[in-house]
Amino acid sequence: MADSETEATEAPTIFDKIVKKEIPSTVVYEDDKVLAFRDIAPQAPTHILIIPKVKDGLSGLSKAEERHVEILGYLLYIAKLVAKQEGLGDGFRIVINDGNDAGQSVYHLHVHLLGGRQMNWPPG
Question: Motif location (Histidine triad motif) (predicted)?
Answer without folding.
Answer: 108-112
